[in-house]
Design the sequence.
């Protein structure tokens, strides 16, 4: 079924979407090529806005019009990840067993990747994983690096790797 152009008295086939409102809603009308060109010539998204509103819009557009969350926000993804990483549920008493050795277990590719990210040998003791994680946190924490986003992203990867190993060690030790 072909769409007919929404322009007054036009019976051409409509192939192009033109927004009805400026609110970024999904409401649009269908226009033919000739009329969508005319529509675009006259379209001014910022019409009716003052300079301050335009500046605020452009600033918000840099974060896709979503509010940024402070690290302390309860639903901040990184904070949830961080708290899960720090919530250490590994049974440390089993590590004290002289015969217990993590190198005897097989690790999957996610575990091997996690060891690599942390710069550790595969199957190294849990205490050494924790020590290395703490060193990397100190090195890559955004607060130690002037809030640089690159370091925050690196710390997220490190925290995900640590969480991967924590879950693996917990399963292997508890079984």
Sequence:
């Amino acid at each position: 079924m072909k769409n007919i152009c929404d322009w007054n008295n036009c019976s051409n086939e409509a192939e192009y979407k033109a927004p009805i409102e400026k609110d970024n809603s999904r409401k649009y009308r269908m226009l033919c090529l000739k009329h969508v060109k005319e529509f675009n010539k006259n379209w001014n998204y910022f019409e009716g806005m003052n300079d301050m509103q335009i500046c605020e819009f452009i600033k918000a557009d840099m974060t896709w019009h979503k509010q940024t969350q402070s690290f302390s926000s309860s639903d901040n993804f990184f904070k949830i990840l961080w708290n899960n990483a720090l919530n250490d549920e590994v049974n440390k008493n089993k590590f004290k067993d002289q015969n217990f050795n993590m190198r005897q277990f097989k690790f999957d590719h996610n575990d091997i990747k996690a060891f690599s990210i942390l710069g550790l040998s595969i199957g190294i003791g849990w205490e050494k994983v924790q020590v290395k994680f703490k060193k990397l946190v100190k090195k890559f924490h955004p607060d130690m690096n002037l809030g640089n986003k690159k370091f925050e992203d690196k710390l997220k990867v490190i925290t995900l790797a640590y969480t991967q190993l924590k879950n693996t060690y917990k399963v292997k030790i508890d079984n």
